[in-house]
């Protein structure tokens, strides 16, 4: 697997001097930076030979950060032959980065694949759509994790696939719901949601814990397992020993 290159104040100019280079300006303490880190690693392998992918730790390389006036992280800048040509600020879905890179590097033409025989999959549990009118009833019993979000919110879109996975993963133990704050201001105001994404865990209608901002999936699992318990492991049968 091709990993992103570590860029520093000393090697930066040499590394980006030729061809296309996507540079991720990040820091270890930055939550959104950690959220997109796996995506950046995937892009390094996906675009190997067409786009070099590198990372600059802004805490350790202030000169490079200052040179390109990086005021917010994550910031991703695409360079061509040493010159910046486009930038993306903030955590974005992987497809946003792919569109940028395909625009300048060209998309890979995929050969037709052999047909795949698939088996029927079980129905996927989706998050419940919560509104000002149904909210109280939906969270009134058991555990309910509520994602306060909006369509224009980049970090909300980043964690959306994770929220959908949790709905299936915790089916029967935790209900997962989503509140569009633009369409449901009363519920947003009732729980004083000032920043999104905000996720609130309710137990029998009462909020018990809150998480603000995009987080790794494991953080949500830790919260839910704390209240719902970890899923029991599947039985593998008992070994029989001979005397």
From TrEMBL:
Where is each Thioredoxin domain found? 1-106, 115-229
Which biological process terms from the Gene Ontology are attached to this UniProt entry? Answer: cell redox homeostasis
Give the matching InterPro entries.
Thioredoxin (IPR005746), Thioredoxin-like_sf (IPR036249), Thioredoxin_CS (IPR017937), Thioredoxin_domain (IPR013766)
Q: Which GO terms describe its cellular component?
A: cytosol
List, in alphabetical order, the Gene Ontology terms for molecular function in this entry: protein-disulfide reductase activity
- Superkingdom of this protein's organism: Bacteria
Please give the CDD domains that the UniProt record associates with this protein. Answer: TRX_family (cd02947)
PROSITE patterns in UniProt? THIOREDOXIN_1, THIOREDOXIN_2
Specify whether DNA repair is a keyword of the entry.
no
Entry keyword set: Disulfide bond, Electron transport, Redox-active center, Transport
Q: Which family does it belong to?
A: Belongs to the thioredoxin family.
**What's this protein's name?**
Thioredoxin
From which organism does this entry originate?
A: Deinococcus marmoris
